[in-house]
Design brief:
The complex is a heterotrimer of chains A (186), B (158) and C (372). Chain B is an alpha/beta fold and 158 residues long. Chain B has 3 helices and 7 strands. Chain C has a single domain, classed as Cytochrome-c3 Hydrogenase, chain B (Orthogonal Bundle). Helix content of chain C is 49%, strand content 12%. Chain C has a 3-stranded antiparallel β-sheet. A 3-stranded antiparallel β-sheet of chain C has the order 6-7-8.
Amino acid sequence: MGVNNTSEIPADFPGKVIPGGNGANILVTSLDDIINWGRANSLWSLYFGTSCCAIEMMQTGAARHDYSRFGFEVARPSPRQADLIIIAGTIVNKMAPVLRRLYDQMAEPKYVIAMGACAISGGPFYYNSYSVVKGADHVIPVDVYVPGCPPRPEALLEGMLMLQAKIKTESMNNKVFPIDGFDEGL
Amino acid sequence: MTNEALQNLISSWIPDPIAIELEFTEEKSQFLNITVQPEQLHQLMTQLKSNPDTNFDYLFCLTGMDWGKELGVVYHLESTTHRHQIVVKVKTEDRENPTLDTVCKIWYTAEFHEREVFDFFGIKFNNHPNLKRLFLTEEWDGFPLRKDYVDEINMVIK
Amino acid sequence: MDTTITNNFKSEEYQINMGPQHPATHGVLRLLLTIDGEIIKRVEPDLGYIHRSIEKMCERDSYQQIVHLTDRMDYLSSHINNEAVCLTVENALQLEIPERVKVIRTIIAELTRIASHTLWWGVMGMDVGALTTYFYGFRDREMINDIFEETCGARLTMNYNIPGGLMFDIHPNFVKRTKEFIAHFKTKLPEYDLLLSNNIIFRKRMEGIGILTKEDAISFGASGPVGRASGYSCDVRKHHSYSAYDKVTFNEILKTEGDTYARYQVRILEMWESLSIIEQLIDNIPEGEFFAKTNTVIKLPEGEYYQKVETARGELGVYIVSTGTKNPYRMKFRSPGFSNLSLLNHIAVGGKIGDLVATMATLDLVIPDIDR
């Protein structure tokens, strides 16, 4: 009403400005809160581990550091029943189309965590290798990057919690699918 | 059996030492090395396995090699009864279309190893049951482990 | 039932794909199965989904950098892989390694073997349907990971070996914690037998399938527990001893049946033998240096060098061809999983798909080891 809510945004600001509360009314924001709470606390991941980071992912699921207390209850073998891929391991030229097909088979909303140095940027296999894809984000859009070689189970849990925090900022108003425009390089 | 005894035994199998050339050397390696021509490879390998004094029944390493001008294969053999080891090398000068005889009827493990050598060096093996690429995709161009392999797109050389 | 009706159903073979992403293939392995109903007629593996061109990378790396790459090949016995490359380089340079280094390397190698076998046991149970074993196996593996983390600095890819010795000396708590672990694990191994080995469903599922004879094992190059379950005595620690293995007494476990249950039993009994090796060495670690001096830039003399070690999966061979420069001219790793995989077609034909899953679990394949 009389309050000017728009703050001064500098002209060369590189990011996207999201207004507080996603610029929506009370009905939509409460509905958003409930939906985001449900989505964030029951992410089921897909069995996808290619190399050594898969062992640390299995350790995170075992009894000492348990990821099912945060809601990641079971790991589904089929991509049609999963909503999170944790890319644990190196992606190679021969495996990249398979990864893309698995991602396409998942239903929206879907999220991706890149675990380990190999999935982030090619890792120890960056130089002198003719068959390693230098980062899984050349193939599918990634939400959270967890560094390490391999990252400790606690580090992976921190990455998963960060993803939950990211999901809680979503809104029905500005729904964005990260795969749109990905192939064209945006 | 010691290396000298092996060398004497294997030399005694050749009827005509000038026509069939076998080179024995022991320098720069811990085993006895035999270099053989590609035409006599299969016969020598069959004899090494079936002769009860040598009885080399375990092929533990099959390596493809690019020596700069020649391509070839190095076989490491061991006997499970006498526990002696030997190395057999075979070379070919042809880089366009290198062909060698297969040994996968003698030792079954060679089937997969020879597919790997074909994949990385391009050496074809006669009478191999299933010679296709093993690790790389079917459409891959070139043979990566050769010394003159250049890949501008994928490799970041350091 | 009228047989004329059933004879009209002609069955034919078709191919299905056990794809790269599959919970039971232990990594990214694609199997093309040609089946007739449920009976398997042919299994063809399709490899290369984790081929990271390690051998080509080694031609441009120095020897200390190569040790770091070998960790990632067979990551469950990473210390033993490092030991293989370090032993090859040390034998080529003819370095004299202190006794302390040899004994510590042997103790950590046996701990790695136990860690690998407990993980194998946990995942094996999960493959045939017993999910509880996963948690039991990983619980014990966590204790070993704690010991490694305190001494070596990392849990999985340890890089504790360098050509010439060890990177740093062992932590003061190492001996105490290892002894506690041995005492704890000796009460847990009988629990493994109670849970799985004597279970009637498990035995009926595993006995009599995937039979491998001794001649086939030698011809296919099978090594490790796979070969020993068929009666083929192939333990590298006995026949070509290295490090401190000639100072300890241990048995080589051999079984003659060659079926899946024999391979399972060999690994469980090997864990007992590893415990006894550690017990013989842990109290008598000799004093001394923990490394031998080498140059910063290692150049091997011209020639060819080969070294075999016994990893948890079988016999690993490292073959270096050097022309005198600081990088190897050609480096080849003879991996145990590669030869063990080549016999899958031979032993799985004629069985059912469920038998194939159980057989593959006992072959204990780690796919990055095969693809390098």
